[in-house]
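P.,

For your records, the input lines for the assembly:
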Amino acid sequence: MFGKEGTFRPRYGKKRSILPLSTTFHNINRQKWAKLAATILTFVLLLSFLNPLPTLTRLVKRKNAHSYPPAHPLTSTNAIETNSRYIFPPVEHALALKQIDINELFKIYQVRDANTPDIEKTIIESLNKLDNPDPAVQKAKEDEENKGSEKAKIINAFKNHDKIVYRPKSKTGYPKVVVVTSIDFQKYSQETLVSLVQNRVDYAHAQNYGVYVRWHQEFLPVLSSLSYLQTHEKAKWVRLYCMRAAMLAFPHAEWFWYLDQDGLVMKQSIDLLQYVLNTESLDPIMMRETPLVPPDGAIKTYRNSKASTVRLIATQSNKKLETYSFIVKNDDIGRAIVNMWGDPLYLNYPNFHFGLDSALTHILQWHPFVLSKTAIIPARTIGARYVNDKSKDDKTSYFKNDFVAQWADCENPVTCEASFQAAFKEHQR
Amino acid sequence: MTHGDDYTHTFKPAKHQLAKVKFQHYVRAGTRTVQELILQHKIFAILLMLLLSLSLFTSTPFIPHFRRGDPKVVIILAANEGGGVLKWKGPQEWSVERSLIANKKQYAKRHGYALTIKDMTIKKRYSHEWRESWEKVDILKQTMRQFPNAQWFWWLDLHTFIMDPTRSLEEHFLDDLEGSTYRTLDKLNPLNIPVDIPYVNYDNPVDMIITQDCGGFNLGLFLMRRSAWSEMLLDSWWDPALYEQMHMQWEHKEQDALETLYLTQPWIRERVGFLPLRMINAFPPGACSDKADDPQYFFHRHDFVVNMAGCEWGRDCWQEMEHYKALSKQIYKPWWHFW
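Structure tokens returned:
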């Protein structure tokens, strides 16, 4: 009896009953509607409170994905990848490069600007600008040229060196420090250049670091003046531009150490990370409250700067800040400092009598943010001056067992070569 | 162990109840009272809950909103520009200023942003030719110190009017920065800045949002995120060596200086994002007169902000402002407002 449906139903509607329905009978239905309405209302309210809509729409909405070109080298949008940690130009071309006219290595022309019609501007363009946009086509073309003549091979190697970047197959064993140098085939003989590069490669090999070496002349497009390489002070700018290129070639290294070509790593067993770069080793040697311009400059390094925030490490001679040996940390701020320091308006500013050194002094004097990220360390750590015994002083000169010897203040190729020979002999011993 | 030593046969009720028991008792009594109250005033309790949740989780108008924590966005309003020693303000100018400030105040209040009004009267320390009207940088630095927990700093010149008070910056573009900004100048480039320079890595997040009008960068309205990058930019924006060489060309001070930095320094490019002008900085007809037929610069119905830049030269600020104020009211008046 109970299993059958509809048997126990009160009679209403068409099946009228003789008995009246209870007065609250229809409330059952009304309550059902009220309940449904309340549930919907609560749900809507909850939704609007938790507000999942923007999140949902963001998930559903196709991301307006802009794609931007990757960072590229100075003179080309194409990069040549290598898996060798030691990037250096074919040094054996030095002698031949010296004999090739500069107009064959670059495209050089003069222009006049409408704003300053009285000044003729020199534009030095890399031959990479004439490249075929397709790297494969360009490579085939160059291979053909290289077979034809030795000279074309040398020119092509010279122009392509800017494109080389380090891209290992796996990140294990990525060099933590990269030693950066730019070498000038006009200044040193080919044998000397070979020894200079070999010295850096040996050191990098001993410490598991990377090496990045460039020709001085490759940076003529940034300098956009042939005379800059001939002037001792202006030529210093190449150091910075070489550093900037190195930071692109080794994007995941932690530190970059620029050591000028007028210098040798004398003690190959010293690990730069342990010696200077670790926070514990850097903290005690940071020179705090030291005038930027010795002996009594008004602006001093900060008293409370922390080693962990240092992005730029430089040394001082007895007269000024020096840039023959400096270290930059590879992070946003480190790169930004290098970028800012290399601004063409600094490069061409006539009041910077010591070129790059003056620009650094200027930046540190006027920009407290950069100053707070900079450490000045004793010269003998990464840039001891190699001099003959008579004029030695304890603070800046090279003594036996110092890490580095440099002779960057040498005046002309002859004295530079002589200093190199003396230092190299001492290193060999 | 023996019984008896501590055991007494006489029953003594504890004079002092244990604290825990007492506490439990009070809690129980309290909950019971609350429950009874809620049951007695059901409708009232539901209304109260509703109000509370509205206040805490939404930004519905006419309800006091309690917000925990500091604001994420700070609006910097540069008022009184060029005022002070140079001239007296007329009653219309006062009225314009009052309305424009009220507009930002309402907007900030509605979305829980902070508003700080900075006086731009010509100060003595900037009166030297070298630093004249270079206060923007100092004001930004000062505001960043003032609001140490804020993330974004939105600079607004006085003569801007927020047309759509309902739209928050987050939903407008901050939540999808990469999608809403463009970072290379290949589409719109009034200054003919080289689009591609070496060493620029666009993988970095956008830390500064600006717009371009017909004459180049427009710093009447921009946003900056607090970061080491922006700290460095604020520090290097003004440099005596650059200024000495460029000040004859730099008519618009910071704006031109930023253009120069953008032109040559890769690290600046890496974190500057551009928004289409109309998205946050639409111009009224009359501005940008040499590009008067290009619709991408000029205000359309439902644009977010209108920038009446330059209205004090040859146009009528007060009329313009009244026009946009009325228009905004007309478009965004809520339906339940009959007045």
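Two observations worth noting. The beta strands of chain B are 73-79, 114-119, 152-157, 160-162, 208-213, 216-225, 272-275, 305-307. Chain B has a mean pLDDT of 84.

Regards
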